[in-house]
Specification:
heterodimer; A: 570 residues; globular; B: 84 residues; 2 helices
Chain lengths: 570, 84
C-alpha cells in the first residue's frame, strides 16, 4: 500500500514555493497545478490506493496525546472534493492576477481548510481552524483599500472570539472526558454541558449564524474580486462540515437554521452592493444546511451535505460573475449599473445558471439538494420549519433571479456611461467549468448522491415535485412585477446587528479615550507629584520644589503606610 | 416590442398550464410512495401557486419595511469608526 500524503499539508508546503519561482509562466502553471495535484490525490484515495475508506494515518504522539492528523471517511471526502474542485476553478479564474501576496494566502487558506476537514482530533482541528482564520485575514488584506483593512480587523476580532470559545470548550471537554477525539458532543441543558455550548458557539461563529454573522457581510464584499471567490467557499462550509460531525440532530439547530434562512433572504433583498447581497445569500443558504443538521435524520444530513456541495459550486460561480462585472465596470453597487445585456451577454447567461441553481429550479443543482432538506422537514412533521424554508426559497428566487438581473443587465435607462475593460478569457473558463458542473449535478443527481455517506432514497424528479417548484416561482413573479419600480436600489447602507458593536464599541472607545484618558492623566500627575514630594521629604537636595498640596498628600501617604504597617503587626 | 409581448403571452400560458396540470395530477399524489400527505395544505390542489404568490407579497412587504427602518446614508458609520 502506498504512503498516504495529506493533501492539505502538501498544499501548504507547496504554496510556500510560489514566490521562489521566477519564471512567470511556470509560476502560473504551478498555481493551477497545486489544486489539481490535490484532486489527483483525492481520486487515488477514492480508489482505495492508500487503504480502505475510512482510515486514519499520520498519527503523531505529542506530549501525552495521540494526534491524528488525518482521518478519511466519506463525509470528509465529499467536502474535500467540493473544496478542491472549486479551488481549481478559482485558480483558473485568477490566473491573470500577478500578486503573490494574494495567491499565497489563498493557497494556504485552501490547504488549512483541507487540513481541518481531515483532522482526526480536536487539537489538530483547532490548529487548522485558527490557521484558516489567519490566512483568510491576509487574503482580505491583499486588497489594499482602507475598507478592506478595517473589515479585516473586524473579521479577525470575530474569529478570535470564536477561536477562544472553541479552545475553552475543547479544554473543558478534555478535562471532563479525557479524550480529544472528534465525536458527537453530549447535549442537554445545564452547566455540565458548558463545554458543548462553548464549542458550538465557536463553530457557529464560523458558520456565520446570526448574531455572529457580521464578519461575513463585512469582509467578503471588501476583498479583492478574486479573493472573495475563495472566501465564499471555505470558512462557512467547513463549519457546516464540523457541525454535521459533532452536533447533528440537536433540536435547537432546526430553528436556528430556519430563522437564519429567512433572515439572510430578507437582508439580501434590500442590499445594494452585489457582493454584500451574495454574502447575505450565503447566510441564508447555510441556514438550510444547519436546519438539516438539526433535523438529523439520514435524509436531512444527506441533504445538508449535498446542499453544501452544490452551494460551494454555485456560490463561487455567483461571486465570480459578480467579480467579473466589478472588475470590468469598476462599480460594485446595483444602483450604479443597468442595461449591460449587450456587452455582458456571456456573463449574464453564466450568472443565470448560478442563479437558477441557488433558487432550486428543476435541472439545476440546487433543486436536487435543497429539496432533500425541505422534504425531510415534511417527513419529520415540522410545518413551521417547512413554511420558513419554502419562504426562503421564494425570497432567493426574488432577489437572485428577478431583482439582480433586472438591475444589472436590463433597465436600459440606467446604463452607466463608462468604458468597460475586457475581462481575460481565463475568467470565463473558470466560470464555465463551474456552470457546467451546476447543470451536470442538476441533470444527473445520482453522481452526487453516490458520494453521500448514507444511502439515498430520494428522487427529486417526481412530477408533483417539479410542478410545485415551478408553480412556486411562476406565481412569486407576479407581485414582484407589479412593484418592480418601487423596489429600487438606493445608495444606502442597511443597518444590521453590527450596529451594536460599531455604535456601542465606538462609544466605548470614545469613553476610554476622553474620560478614562483624562482620568488616567490626572492619576498619573498626582502619583508622580506625590512621589516627587516623598523624595523631597526624604532627600531635600535632589528633589524639585513641589506645591504645598502634594507636600500634605505625601505626609498623609507616609502616615497611612505606617498605620497599615502598625495594624498588620498587631 | 414584439419580443416582449411574446414573452408575456408565453408566461401567461405557462401560468395557466401549470394550474391545469396541478388539478390534473392532484398535487403530491402522482406516485404511490409520495401519496401520503404531510400537512393539511398538501390536500389543496395548486397550493404551491398560492404559496408562491402570497409568500412573495409577504417577503416583499417585510423587506421593504425593514429597508425603511434600517437604511441610513453611506457615511453613517464614518465618525465613530476610526479603526485601522
Amino acid at each position: 500500500m502506498a504512503m498516504w500524503m495529506h493533501p492539505g499539508v502538501l498544499i501548504i508546503i507547496g504554496s510556500l514555493l510560489l514566490p521562489v519561482i521566477r519564471d512567470k509562466r511556470l509560476k502560473k502553471s504551478y498555481f493551477i497545478f497545486l489544486p489539481v495535484l490535490s484532486l489527483v490525490l483525492l481520486i487515488l484515495v477514492s480508489f482505495n490506493l492508500f487503504g480502505d475508506i475510512p482510515f486514519t494515518s499520520w498519527n503523531i504522539h505529542f506530549l501525552d496525546y495521540d494526534l491524528v492528523l488525518c482521518k478519511v471517511d466519506r463525509l470528509s471526502m465529499i467536502f474535500a472534493y467540493a473544496f478542491t474542485i472549486v479551488t481549481i476553478c478559482a485558480n483558473i479564474y485568477s490566473y491573470h492576477v500577478k500578486k503573490d501576496l494574494e495567491h499565497i494566502p489563498a493557497m494556504l487558506y485552501f490547504g488549512s481548510t483541507l487540513g481541518m476537514i481531515f483532522a482526526g482530533d480536536l487539537f489538530t482541528l483547532f490548529i487548522f481552524w485558527e490557521l484558516m482564520s489567519l490566512t483568510a485575514l491576509f487574503l482580505i488584506w491583499s486588497n489594499k483599500t482602507q475598507n478592506a483593512k478595517r473589515a479585516g480587523f473586524r473579521y479577525i476580532l470575530w474569529h478570535i472570539f470564536g477561536g477562544v470559545c472553541l479552545l475553552g470548550g475543547i479544554l473543558l471537554h478534555l478535562h471532563n472526558t479525557g479524550s480529544i477525539d472528534i465525536v458527537k458532543f453530549p447535549w442537554g441543558s445545564g452547566i455540565e454541558y458548558l463545554s458543548s455550548y462553548l464549542i458550538l458557539v465557536g463553530f457557529m461563529v464560523n458558520a456565520a449564524v446570526p448574531p455572529f454573522h457580521t464578519w461575513l457581510t463585512d469582509a467578503y464584499p471588501a476583498a479583492t474580486v478574486t479573493g472573495a471567490v475563495y472566501l465564499s467557499a471555505f470558512t462557512t462550509k467547513s463549519a457546516v462540515y464540523i457541525l454535521i460531525r459533532c452536533f447533528s440532530g440537536i433540536n435547537v439547530l432546526i430553528w436556528i437554521g430556519a430563522i437564519m434562512a429567512i433572515y439572510g433572504v430578507l437582508f439580501a433583498l434590500i442590499q445594494n452592493d452585489i457582493r454584500k447581497m451574495l454574502s447575505y445569500s450565503i447566510i441564508s443558504q447555510i441556514g438550510y444546511m444547519i436546519c438539516g443538521i438539526g433535523l438529523g435524520s439520514n435524509m436531512a444530513i444527506n441533504g445538508s451535505i449535498a446542499h453544501a456541495f452544490c452551494h460551494i459550486l454555485y456560490k463561487s460561480l455567483l461571486f465570480m460573475t459578480a467579480g467579473e462585472l466589478i472588475a470590468s465596470t469598476g462599480k460594485t453597487n446595483l444602483s450604479d449599473l443597468g442595461g449591460l445585456y449587450k456587452e455582458k451577454k456571456a456573463t449574464f447567461w453564466i450568472y443565470m445558471i448560478g442563479a437558477l441553481s441557488i433558487s432550486g429550479f428543476p435541472l439545476f443543482s440546487g433543486f436536487v439538494s435543497k429539496s432533500m432538506i425541505i422534504e425531510s422537514s415534511a417527513y419529520l412533521n415540522q410545518p413551521f420549519v417547512w413554511i420558513l424554508l419554502e419562504l426562503a426559497s421564494i425570497g432567493t428566487f426574488l432577489y437572485i433571479v428577478l431583482k439582480v438581473p433586472r438591475s444589472i443587465w436590463f433597465t436600459k435607462d440606467k446604463r452607466p456611461n463608462i468604458d468597460m475593460i475586457r475581462s481575460p478569457i481565463n475568467m470565463y473558463i473558470g466560470m464555465g467549468i463551474l456552470a457546467a458542473l451546476c447543470i451536470i449535478i442538476g441533470v444527473y443527481p445520482n453522481l452526487l448522491y453516490n458520494l453521500l455517506p448514507y444511502p439515498v432514497d430520494f428522487d427529486p424528479y417526481r412530477a408533483s415535485h417539479i410542478l410545485s417548484s415551478v408553480q412556486l416561482f411562476l406565481f412569486a413573479f407576479i407581485p414582484f412585477w407589479f412593484i418592480r419600480d418601487r423596489f429600487k436600489n438606493e445608495n444606502k447602507i442597511i443597518l444590521d446587528i453590527d450596529w451594536f458593536f460599531k455604535k456601542i464599541g465606538g462609544g466605548f472607545m470614545t469613553f476610554c479615550r476622553s474620560y478614562l484618558g483624562s482620568f488616567r492623566d490626572s492619576v498619573n500627575d498626582s502619583v508622580s507629584n506625590t512621589i516627587a514630594s516623598l523624595v523631597y521629604l526624604i532627600n531635600f537636595k535632589d528633589a524639585k520644589r513641589v506645591s504645598v498640596d502634594y507636600y500634605l498628600l505625601s505626609v498623609i501617604v507616609l502616615f497611612l503606610i505606617f498605620f497599615i504597617y502598625y495594624v498588620m503587626m498587631l | 416590442m414584439i419580443k416582449h409581448n411574446l414573452l408575456l403571452v408565453l408566461y401567461i400560458v405557462s401560468l395557466i398550464l401549470s394550474i391545469l396540470v396541478g388539478f390534473l395530477i392532484g398535487y403530491r399524489s402522482i406516485l404511490p410512495v409520495m401519496a401520503e400527505t404531510h400537512f393539511i395544505w398538501d390536500k389543496i390542489p395548486n397550493f404551491s401557486a398560492l404559496f408562491g404568490f402570497f409568500g412573495s407579497i409577504v417577503l416583499l412587504t417585510v423587506s421593504m419595511m425593514l429597508k425603511m427602518v434600517l437604511s441610513r446614508d453611506e457615511d453613517y458609520y464614518d465618525e465613530s469608526d476610526d479603526l485601522g
